Structures are given as C-alpha cells and as structure tokens.
Amino acid sequence: MNSLWEKFLEKGSVEDCPVYDMHAHMGTYNRIYFPYGNFDPEITKKRLDRAGIKLLVFCHHWALFSPDIGNSINIEVVRKLPERLRAYCGLNPNYPEIIEKDVGEFEKYRDVFVGFKMLAEYHQIPVSHENYAPAWKYANLKKLPVLLHTWGGSQCNGPEQIRDVAEKYPEARILMGHSCHGEWGKAVRLMKDFPNVYAELCAVVDSRGGLEQFLDEVGSKRIIFGTDWPWFNHHYYIGAVLDSGLSDEDAHNIFHRNAENLLKGLIAN
Amino acid sequence: MKLDFFDVNTFIGRPMNGIFKPAKTGTDLVSEIRSQNISKAITWHILQYECSPEKGNRTLVEEISGHPELYGCWTILPPQTGEIITKDFFRKMKENKIVALNVFPEWHRFILNRISFGEFLDELIERKIPLLLTMDRACLSWELLYGLMKEFPELTCILCDIGIWGVDRFTWPLLEKFPNFYLETSLLSLEEGGLEATVKRFGAERIVFGTGFPVRYPKAAILQLAYADISDEDKEKIASENLEKILQEEKL
C-alpha cells in the first residue's frame, strides 16, 4: 500500500502532494442538478482546499454549449479566482468564425487560458475536421494542452480520430479526456505510438481496471488527473486512484508532477 | 475520526464477461473488506443475476457461511412460479443469515408491481425487510421504480448504484415522498456535493454506505464520506448506524 493513502485519510489533503485537476467544468447544466453548479469564488476555493486541489483547469459549460456566451464566461470566472483557476478555451466547430477569433485572441488572455477544449461528440463534428485546424495549428506551434472529450467507439472523438490529430500535430499535448472510455487497450496503443498523447482519468476510475492497465502498460508519467468537477467529487477520485495499488511515486506523477510539466511556461509558478 | 463501515453493496463471484479482480469467494471478499477496514458487508453472488437466481441463492449461502462479517442478499422472482418464494422462505432467510433481498426485473423478465408481488411485498413491509434495487445492469427504469414506490409506499427500499451522472432530480422526489426509501453511497459520493446536499435536504438517516465493490474502488466512497462537509455524527450514521438500524428493525 502507498503511504499517501494514510496521509489523505488522516487529513483529507497532503501538503507535499498537491493535486491538479486538469479536467473540470463550471456552471449550471441543463441535464443535471449540480449542488455546486453556481460559481462562487469563496465556495469554490473552500471546496478545492478540502482536497488540496492546487489548480483547477476547466471549461465552463456555457462556453461549450452556447456560442452566444462563448469563452467570455471562462475569462470572467478565472479572473475571480486567478490563484486557483485556469481555463481551456472552448471550441465549437459549428462556428468556425468564432474559433478563428478565439485563437486569434488567445495571447490576449494568457492569464486565463492554458490550452483548448474540444467536445466533438456533443458538437457532432470529428476532432480531425478542418474547422478545428486553426486551434490545432496554434496548439502545435505553442505546445499547448488540448483536452479532448474522448470515448470508445465514437466517430467524432474515438481512437481513430485521435490517431489522425496526434500524427498531424505532434507538438500539441493531447489529453484524452476519459481515455477513450471502455477501449482502454486502444488508449494504451495511442500513448505508445505518440509521445504527445496522455490518458486523463475522468470517468476512468468510476470502475476498477482501466487505471491499472494504464499503469501496467504505459506508466504513470502519461496519466493526468481530472474529475469533470463539479460533476464528480475530488476525494472520491483521489481515493479511487490510491486504491489502484500504485506506488507513491506514481501517485505524485498523476496528482501533480505530470500537470506541472504540462503547464510549465503557461502559468507563473 | 475513525468510522466503522458496514458495506451494503458488494457482490462475489466471477461475471461471465469478466471484471477486474473480483472476489471469487466469500473468503476473498472478507479479505478485501478487512484490507479496507470495513467491518461488515451485505453481499450477493453474481450467479443470482447472470446464471440462475435459484442456484445463485444457494451458492451465496455456502459462500457466506462461516464468515461472521458477511450477510446475504437473495434474489427474488415472482411468487407465482415457486422458483424462489416458497412457504418457508422467510424461515430459510433467517436460518441462512440472509438479511436483504434484491431484484432484477427487466433482466429476469417480469414486472415488479402489485400484480406480480402484491402479497409478498406487503409481507416485506410488515417484516421490514429491505429490498435492494440497482440502477445498474439495465434492469430497472425510473418509471418502474416510481410506480413500485407509489404502490408500496411503506416499502424499505435501498437504491444502489444510482448512476454515474447526478440523479438528484430523480431521487429527491422519492426521498421526499417515501420515508423508508434510502440511497446507497457508492455513486452518490461520486457526485460533487451530492452527499452533503442530500443530507442537508433529507437528513443523514436516509443514506447508507456502500462501495460497489468489485466494480468500484472502496477507498473512493470511504475517503469521500470521511471528508464530506457534514457532522461527524452524520458520518457515523451513514457509515454503519443507519444500516444497523434497518436490520435491527427487521422481523424474520
């Protein structure tokens, strides 16, 4: 057993093991009631403190689901709690003119954005589609994280589409949100074939086995912690990771070191 | 604080399509719960669902026998066929340390309502025997659950595996209307703030601890409850006291 479990169980957070949640959201949502859906900086900070979440990188639901709101809500929220929040610039390929504008203005909001977020399954256009190209080219040029919603069997963000973009944009840091859920073997294959592809744990640790396969076959340096917060609870996810039989070193990599490496140069400290 | 855990949601046996490191036997499950500092567990055998409820119920008795930490949960079928529910059913439950029942209506192909189960479920209510329902395994719809609770409003029902996506819009009306309706924590704890919000709205008395092992990670539900933003007293209720109370009131 790793020693970090005893430490988290004793105090709820561990000072020398901060946690970076690299897959989060913000705001209310039509299909689910979220007790912490409404953003309040003080309450959000309190919730993050409870589990030792040092940084939450999110894309607001409204940015993803309403082109009329778009990324302005991400900017507004990050600037209310800048010491704990960063955002992904949300992209909707049904509105390529907005993508061009947002990519063009990315530098202007470097205090807010650390990369891009694609929710291709919901927007019904594959991640490899040309409408995403300005963002992919920019991410490739700047070596930015791109968080994809990915799912096994998907025609928009399944393993085949990820392979396409991983080949084409080798410098972009591709975070497979949900790690091609259910097709763990294909996620492993992608990580083995492409050094710029990472597994992300949101929905992976809802059941046992996927994380263990990634640890066995790829190793902890390619695994990123994420929870879809406020969908899912940080302590639940931390407990799940620590129940996978991993070592302290592996846990440190997953909870913070890998994220720190990805974010190097993108945020101060 | 150190909590005493009583897990309402585990199963033993190997599913036909495989699962990551299952508890093949009762002994394996005891080993797992001990390693997690869980004192006791209610369990059932995967045979009850996938193979034969009758064979599964018998196998379960063999697996929990000799393990004081384990209590059994039998699967029921409509009384009319006589496959499971016989005249001495409740006596056999008591003799074999079976403290709860579960049911998989759509998979086992019957309708869970008053037409099929009227007198039997009335007797469960009388005896205060908990019925464990799952939203997993595609065997129960929300509509069917609502219909069941409407027909049997006093039924002691513990809803397990409530869903990956937050389901408060489904469960809160049931908690509001039916005093013996409970939620199990293995997925309620997954929802950010879900457990706290439910406690605040309905009280900790309506929630019982479960891990969902071997599908889910026990430490996930354990750590979430340990650091939930609720009182220590409420945590103790959820961890074990509520389930103990339900079983103490049972008349077998």
Automatic annotation (TrEMBL), chain A:
One of its GO terms (molecular function) is hydrolase activity. It holds the Pfam family Amidohydro_2. This is Amidohydrolase. SUPFAM superfamilies: Metallo-dependent hydrolases. Residues 113-263 form the Amidohydrolase-related domain. Keywords: Lyase. One of its GO terms (biological process) is secondary metabolic process. GO terms for cellular component: cytoplasm.
From TrEMBL, chain B:
GO terms for molecular function: hydrolase activity. It comes from the Bacteria. Residues 56-246 form the Amidohydrolase-related domain. This is Amidohydrolase. It comes from candidate division TA06 bacterium ADurb.Bin131.
